[in-house]
Every structure is written in C-alpha cells, then in structure tokens.
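To: structure subgroup
Subject: Chain for Friday's discussion

All,

I'm putting the inputs and outputs inline so they're searchable in the archive.
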Amino acid sequence: MSFEIEIVEEKKNLLIERTEVKFRIEHFGSGTPNRLEIKKKIAALKNANELLTIVHKIQTHYGSTHDIGVVYIYDNIKELQFFEPFHIQVRNLPLEKRNEIYQAKAKKEPYKHLFGYTE
C-alpha cells in the first residue's frame, strides 16, 4: 500500500519523556493504512526505535483521502508501559502477537514478556 506521511506538528514532552508527533496521511485510491505500516514509516522518518513508537490515534473523515493521527515516541520502555493503556500497547502489535496476549490474559497466565520489551 502506498501512502504519504507529512509531519504536521512535533513537540517534546519532557515530563513524560516522549516526543508527540501529529501527522497527516494521504492515501488516494486506497483505504487507511494499518497501524503497523504507519508505525514503521514514522519510526524510520524520525530515526526512532520501532518498539518505543506508539500510534495513539488515527482519525479519518468519511469520504476523504487523508487521515490525521498522533504518534508518541518514548525515550524508554518504563515510561511507555506506565503511560500507555494496555489496549493501545496491544493495538500496536501484529495480529498473531495480539491474539497470543489476549489468550494468555484470559487464562490468567503471564503475558508481559510477549510485548517484546527488554529492560
């Protein structure tokens, strides 16, 4: 899928130790790209660690060929785990990994290691 990303706004949140990036995606002739594709492209643009990059929100207006979204790029894993809700962290993983985490959580088994965060 081909799409263009334009960084609209970028600010550094020193208190939370993250960079907050507002972006616009042009995807004429195709649907909204998935979070993993957006995450990879923005992490490459900003020279950031893909694991510490979280697509927080993507907003699409009906019938338009562009989306507005927000990505948080954290400086360390502890801040990411503390400030990002569980469901947002899970959304930023591949489908197989998401299913594995939800199954482990339902069985009340340990699942935190499945996120791939190394401390």
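Points worth raising on Friday:
The helical segments are 35-45, 77-83, 86-91, 95-106.
The chain has a mean pLDDT of 90.

D.
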